[in-house]
Amino acid sequence: MSSISRESLRKNIIVALDVSSVDAAFDYYESLNGKVGGFKLGFEFFYSTLVNLVTNPDSKKAHEDLDLTRHFFKTLAGTPFGDVKLCDIPETVKKALQNLLKLNLLMFNVHAWGGKPMMKAARAVVDEFASANPEKPKPLLLAVTVLTSMDNNDLEDIGLPEEYRVPMVQSLAKAAYECNCDGVIASAKDTKAIREVVPDTKFKIFTPGVRLPGSAKHDQKAVTTPGEAIRNGAAGVIIGRDITGAEDPVAAVEKIIDNIIEAVNNPATA
Fold first, then answer.
1. CA 195 → CA 118, 127, 190, distances in Å?
2. I need a labelling partner for 68 at 20 to 30 A (CA). Which of 56, 58, 129, 152 fits?
3. 256 vs 120, 207, 218, 240, CA distance in Å?
4. Cα distances (angstroms) measured from residue 104 to each of 73, 78, 84, 108, 262
């Protein structure tokens, strides 16, 4: 890892823009563009933007926000991670994606729980989009295994005993691989187990629930450091508050890169 440049490591970092306004998202983008690999936009951003435009259609601010939203996605082209976690019947997922992919996403996700027919439908839509738009980057299709906000107690609450966790994660990841997904979203604690059943490193694992040492966990339970995640085999880490909540977000990114280098070069101290 020491031979890999800091600039290369930046591509492993996806910033979670868990904000409710286009203005806030754009501010983070402008300060971090080129410093990280991409930007996650999830339910909070998409729903608040839509609701604001629908409930205040005649206000000056709504028109300004609409123009800014258009400019925002045009500017971000090729860097957004659409954290949409689609999970529905195949036809519904297909039609949703036919619209979402117009945003020129870097990657997006579905729930592996949705099953193979749904994941195959998503794969077909991505391939059709890429074939029709060869000049645009082909977005990665990722499948969510188990949310990092869920620990073993939460799984037991829905009828899945602790000993089922690893086999379940492995089954979901293997199903995603067999459906030609590009990878999964999974806790770093599950990465090694996933690699036991899917050793193909072209199948990428992206890890959310990542925190620098000493940071608060907030609503995440399966938490690891950025360095631990990459050392355990993650292709990238998805980090929000440690960057967006920092006094200096750019400096926070540098600390994350330091943590990755230290963890991989000196495993005993990570």
1. 23, 25, 9
2. 129
3. 35, 14, 18, 12
4. 8, 5, 14, 10, 34
Going by C-alpha positions, the residue among 58, 258, 111 that lies closest to residue 269 is: 258
Return d(Cα 169, Cα 153) in angstroms, integer.
16
Query: If we measure between CA atoms, which residue out of 211, 201, 185 comes closest to residue 81?
Result: 185
DSSP symbols for 30-92: HHHTTTSSEEEE-HHHHHHHHHHHHHSTTSHHHHHHHHHHHHHHHHHTT-EEEEEEE-S-HHH
Superfamily of domain 6-264: Aldolase class I (3.20.20.70)
Q: Which residue has the tokens 């030609």?
A: 180
Residues contacting residue 72 through CB under 8 Å, at least 6 positions apart: 22, 25, 26, 29
Q: Which of 11, 35, 61, 85 is catalytic?
A: 85
Q: Tell me the domain boundaries of the chain.
A: 6-264
Q: Is 270 helix (H, G, I), strand (E, B) or coil?
A: coil
270 residues of the chain, pLDDT tens digit each: 445 678 889 999 999 999 998 999 999 999 999 999 999 999 999 998 888 888 877 777 777 888 888 999 999 998 999 999 999 999 999 999 999 999 999 999 999 999 999 999 999 999 999 999 999 989 999 999 998 888 888 888 988 888 888 999 999 999 999 999 999 999 988 999 999 999 999 999 999 988 888 665 555 555 688 998 998 889 999 999 999 999 999 999 999 999 999 888 876 554
- Cβ 67 vs Cβ 74: under 8 Å: no
Asked about 40 being catalytic, the answer comes back as: no
